Amino acid sequence: MQVYRYSGPEFSPYGDDELVPVDESGPWLAPTATGRLDARLQLPGSKSLTNRELVLSALADSPTLLRRPLHSRDSALMIEALRNLGATIEEVEGDGEFGPDLLITPGELIGSSSIDCGLAGTVMRFVPPVASLALGPVVFDGDASARRRPMRTMIDALRTLGVDVNDDGRGVLPFSVYGTGSVEGGELEIDASASSQFVSGLLLSAPRFTRGLRLRHTGEHLPSIPHIEMTIECLAARGVTVESPEPGLWTVEPQAIAGGEIDIEPDLSNAAPFLAAAIVAGGTVTIDGWPDVTTQVGAHLETILPLFGAGVTRADGSLTVDGGVGLLGGATLPGVDIDLSAGGELAPAIVGIAALASTPSRITGIGHLRGHETDRLAALAAEINGLGGNVTELDDGLAIEPAPLGAGLWHTYEDHRMATTGAIIGLAVPGVEVEDIDTTSKTLPQFAALWTGRTLAVAEGTSASGELGTL
């Protein structure tokens, strides 16, 4: 998927700047901030919400209109997967800045198809239960890196529910699901310690199981609980009741999933690097369309970023981070000691800020990130240390000691959040080259455009040194 930047020397928050393709023939030189920021921007829809709502729309009893959905590689893979299983998904004109709305008309679930999961965890974990309800075999595969992501929990879960799955004993992609047109459902125990997506994937399809589902998590740890709460809220908005009589236990009775019209919130996790920019460069960054109440883990940024000395305010549906003079203006960034088990996808951005801090940081509760697009703990440690940093891997996190960082190549490991973390560090460290900025197309194809055009809009008459400056 092509990524873009905005053309022209001036960038208004909502102007008609022309989008032009980014040259992806080599590494992307991360821009270094030249002054305190004065930026205001909107973000495309949430990937987590878009892909959940796409699945529910394909399983619903009537059509669904998704307003302002995300258009990215992950969402495109989900759309194609559900089309292969019988849903009709059309683009229709909407009022979103980042692409058309989507009209989904459910159809009879059919198999005898192949699903490309790419590197999308939501596709490889949410779609197999849907395929189990289809009639005929469905082959799942994806990128080479996807074949390292844990899938045994879902494969074993479907087998326990009576679904024939062939993975040649590997517990990873590729595998085949042989659906018979229905799933009996009933009692099921799983260990979802590796990913909350296993719980969400089963709950999304559970209303269509003949006996519903009584699902119990047996592991000691369950990461990213807010994502399960998001799934339950999405189901509730469509008339589906999920009971949770005790922690780690969910029950869903067989019931209809309603269609209708659904508004997709902006992706608050994708807001993390943009809001972090205010802490590094100083000044303010405002994200419009910030929901008052949400199950997105990005909402935790409102309480996390003040730990680095930032001010956070909300007004008129927007959230603003004020970094004051910022690191580049002479502010001292304190380190943090934080458990991010509820919001692990925020960890790369938080680690990026912590790598620039003047005191040590300890970020824990994120051991499950070893099974994401890459082993994020190893990747973050390797790349920060490669720039001169001092990061040590822990069993469930990272310990970061202050160390001056220098120029160098920042490898991305086919991971969108590794790419954006390199951009954060590059704001303060000249000469950071991000290996493959195109990896951001996974959830935010417009990242380079928004970063270089709208985020780095410098407050009039300021520079990092306090002198007059321009971007």
Topology of helices and strands:
Blueprint: E1 4-6, E2 19-21, E3 28-29, E4 37-41, H1 47-59, E5 64-67, H2 73-84, E6 88-92, E7 101-105, E8 113-116, H3 121-132, E9 135-141, H4 152-160, E10 164-166, E11 175-180, E12 186-190, H5 197-205, E13 213-217, H6 225-237, E14 242-246, E15 249-252, E16 260-263, H7 272-281, E17 283-288, H8 301-304, E18 311-315, E19 318-322, E20 337-339, H9 347-354, E21 361-364, H10 376-386, E22 390-393, E23 398-401, E24 408-410, H11 416-428, E25 432-434, H12 447-455
Parallel strand pairs: 4-17, 5-16, 8-9, 12-13, 20-21, 24-25
Antiparallel strand pairs: 1-2, 3-25, 5-7, 6-7, 9-11, 10-11, 13-15, 14-15, 17-19, 18-19, 21-23, 22-23
Helix pairs in contact: 1-2, 1-3, 1-6, 3-5, 5-6, 7-11, 9-11
What would you note in describing this structure?
- This protein has 471 residues and is an alpha/beta fold.
- It folds into 2 domains: 4-43 and 266-455, UDP-n-acetylglucosamine1-carboxyvinyl-transferase, Chain (Alpha-beta prism), CATH 3.65.10.10; 47-263, UDP-n-acetylglucosamine1-carboxyvinyl-transferase, Chain, CATH 3.65.10.
- Helices cover 26% and strands 23% of the residues.
- The chain has helices spanning 47-59, 73-84, 121-132, 152-160, 197-205, 225-237, 272-281, 301-304, 347-354, 376-386, 416-428, 447-455; strands at residues 4-6, 19-21, 28-29, 37-41, 64-67, 88-92, 101-105, 113-116, 135-141, 164-166, 175-180, 186-190, 213-217, 242-246, 249-252, 260-263, 283-288, 311-315, 318-322, 337-339, 361-364, 390-393, 398-401, 408-410, 432-434.
- Strands 4-17-19-18 form a 4-stranded mixed sheet.
- Strand 18 (311-315) and strand 19 form a beta hairpin.
- Helix 1 packs across helix 6 and helix 5 packs parallel to helix 6.
- The radius of gyration is 22 Å and the shape is globular.
